[in-house]
Predict the structure of Outer membrane protein beta-barrel domain-containing protein.
Amino acid sequence: MKKLFLFISTFGLITIAAAQNPTFNNPHIAVSIGPELNIPQHSGYTIGYGATGKLEAHLIKAFSLSLTGGYTQMHYRRAYAEAFATPSNDHYIPLKAGIKYYPDTKVYFEGEAGAVLDNNAGQKNLATYSLGTGFIIPFQPESHQAVDVGLRYESWSRNRLQQFAIRVAYRLAW
């Protein structure tokens, strides 16, 4: 509950600060939400999918801070599930903070770190980090609406799970 309060408070303060600046040519706040596909490596999982929301606040020049939260459902390999009588799916809630670097207005590199809340019975929360890249496709020139396509590598708690993820999101900047 404290994390949710902290997230909402941070979002509110950043939004108020952005509203004080009437310049819309260089967006200071961006929000994106969209589905993602997870492809685990060297794991008992075959595939994962979910959705994430991301809040991004412009810092200086080409750098932005980002907060990401989402939901991920991972599916076990059939042979693994049958051998160990495991449930069909595992559910996780990743919460991360990071920094984005824009070498161009439509291309970015991103690094994030945070925690993954494990919704499965008897499991512990995990630490995570991710590195990725992506590009932004505006709907129209000088538009504040865009599609954000990202690809990242992610690792959870001492290589418990390593995966590649593809995210396609609707992005609104102001």
